[in-house]
Amino acid sequence: MTGSNAVVSAVVVFLGFIVATLLLVIIGRDPSGMYQAILQVVSGFDSRRGTWNARYTGEWLVAAVPLILCGLSFAFSARTGLFNIGAEGQYIAGLTAAQFIAVSFAPAALLTIMPVLHWIAAVLCAMTAGAAWGGIAGFLKARFKVSEVVTTIMMNYIALFTHRIITLNIPGSNTFRTPDFHLTASVANPALSSLTNNSRLNDSLWFTIAAVFIYWLIMERSTLGFSLRAAGYNKEAALYAGMRVKTNITAAMAISGAFAGLAGASVSLGVFTHGRVLTSFEGYGFDGIAVALGGNCTALGVAVMGLLFGMLKSAQPLMQSRQIPREIASIIMGLVVVFIALRPGIRLFVEWRLKKRRLKEKTLTGEED
Q1: Which tens digit of pLDDT belongs to each residue from 249-275?
Q2: pTM of the full structure
Q3: How many alpha carbons fall within 13 Å on the CB side of residue 159?
Q4: How far apart are CA 45 and CA 63, in angstroms?
């Protein structure tokens, strides 16, 4: 994020916290408890007891990982002129594929020689499943001009119920969980866990950093990113330039889905030791929309907003222990989304203020000359 866009995003977040603070004052709660909880999550320092525990910081990063990846998913489609509301379904598709491979696929002879192949296969299958789920919507958009908004919304539900059918039919599964994963499928990282006092921080942290870099590389430094954006924003101009518009639209949605599929693998293989049978949406894909919009759909912006939202989610139990309603974190996230909708007006105000300041500086410089 650069220039006025970064300033506007900062103002949006600031306003969210200001309103939340006022709400706490109105209901008779001490707002300092909210900020103490946030400080404890970010730094691990408990200001009440004067103790430090790095586990809180590790769990913050664990919460931020799927938000950043789902944010990248929506941001990628948005930057290419598409509106992917299906990151939740693509996340579920990735989670389902990762769990299936983690439980069912374990050729003992091969894994004894190279155990790393198991989790690599699970992660790649998750990304492929997410890409396929997004690619279907992209193909329908490119070939039949079906709105990707409608398609992705409906495919979210299809993904959820398909997940239940597949997962419940894994031998040994019940209505809540599958059998335990094979150890070779886990992306747990003992070093990261030990460093953060036995938190659940795992190798998905590295996946996320790599994903942010790849997103930036494609969007800002590659001809692929340029052609995808061109196809999404102006089909006629892209066709005139000789670009394969239909292929690009499908590819954009597939890549978008791959990011969400990676989020599914990160949660299933990194946080849990068994597969889960989902009964409802977990919300990562929907939260990713706010993360992407708040971050201006840039790589750095999405990463920062994902960390912010992850921080708020992780701070909820700590807020509650300080007599602060845990719902205040959700209120802040909701306010950020509301203020994002008002961003054009906020941007105009910020640019007007910056312009007024520059004129004042020029006037003062002229007087001194």
Answers
A1: 999 999 999 999 999 999 999 999 999
A2: 0.92
A3: 34
A4: 18
